[in-house]
């Protein structure tokens, strides 16, 4: 896509003009800037699916077959068809322009993995909080986490076939999301929609940079 012409590229030059990022100075050989993003949200919301859909390298994922050991531990309500679970994290990469390459870290959704989140969030430029409208309340912990740390985030409503389709503004109200935080409709299985979600996040993160 013609990302180099987009407002993200403009946003980046704005930052460059202010001297916050080393100017590429038109150097065609300059390495792209690595940008770390976290994909968060509750269990079974589509994090692994999203990272797999957009990654240009085979996503590194640490999915394991769910075993009886997770019975009664992982809440499968609404995701009964889920057969695997992320035991550590998902990792993927996507180049969105000559200048920016995104490194995606999918956080494990289960509460018992919370201690990992602090490490995952280190150095992150922004986060996608994936939301399943059948289990809206699962998003609160992620929203709180990034708000507390001042990490810019966007909320992506992942549409599941049997879920009622809420308008983004209804989701904003239900989750008490500030007006400046973008809310996008996504399908984690769809590469373009997932990619647009990431681009919205990068733009938002640039806008949020003082
Ligand atoms: N209908 C629908 N199913 C999805 C979507 N995203 C993920 N799924 C399915 O939901 C299940 C859980 O997704 P997964 O990516 O493993 O969730 P995670 O726990 O957040 O990593 C899988 O069976 C996916 O195929 C979506 O956008 N729409
Ligand atoms: Mg997963």
UniProtKB/TrEMBL annotation:
Q: Name one Pfam family in it.
A: ATP_bind_1
Instruction: Give any GO molecular function from the UniProt entry.
Output: GTP binding
Domain of life the protein comes from:
Bacteria
Q: Does the keyword GTP-binding apply?
A: yes
Q: What is this protein called?
A: ATP-binding protein
Q: Which CDD domains match?
A: Ras_like_GTPase (cd00882)
Kindly indicate where the leader peptide sits in this chain: none
For the region Disordered, give the residue spans: 1-27
Swiss-Prot/TrEMBL keywords: ATP-binding, GTP-binding, Hydrolase, Nucleotide-binding
Q: Which family does it belong to?
A: Belongs to the GPN-loop GTPase family.
Q: Which Gene3D superfamilies match?
A: P-loop containing nucleotide triphosphate hydrolases (3.40.50.300)
């Amino acid at each position: 896509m013609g990302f180099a012409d987009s407002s993200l590229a403009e946003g980046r030059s704005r930052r460059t003009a202010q001297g916050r990022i080393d100017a590429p100075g038109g150097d065609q050989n300059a390495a792209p800037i690595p940008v770390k993003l976290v994909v968060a949200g509750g269990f079974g919301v589509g994090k692994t699916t999203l990272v797999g859909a957009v990654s240009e390298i085979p996503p590194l994922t640490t999915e394991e077959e769910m075993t009886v050991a997770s019975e009664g531990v992982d809440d499968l309500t609404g995701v009964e068809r889920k057969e695997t679970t992320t035991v550590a994290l998902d990792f993927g990469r996507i180049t969105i322009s000559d200048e920016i390459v995104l490194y995606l870290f999918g956080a494990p959704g289960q509460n018992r993995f919370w201690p990992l989140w602090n490490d995952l969030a280190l150095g992150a430029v922004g986060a996608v909080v994936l939301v399943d409208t059948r289990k809206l309340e699962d998003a609160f912990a992620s929203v709180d986490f990034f708000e507390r740390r001042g990490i810019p985030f966007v909320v992506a409503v992942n549409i599941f076939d049997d879920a009622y389709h809420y308008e983004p503004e209804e989701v904003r109200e239900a989750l008490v999301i500030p007006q400046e935080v973008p809310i996008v409709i996504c399908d984690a299985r769809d590469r373009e929609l997932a990619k647009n979600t990431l681009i919205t996040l990068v733009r938002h993160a640039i806008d949020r940079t003082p």
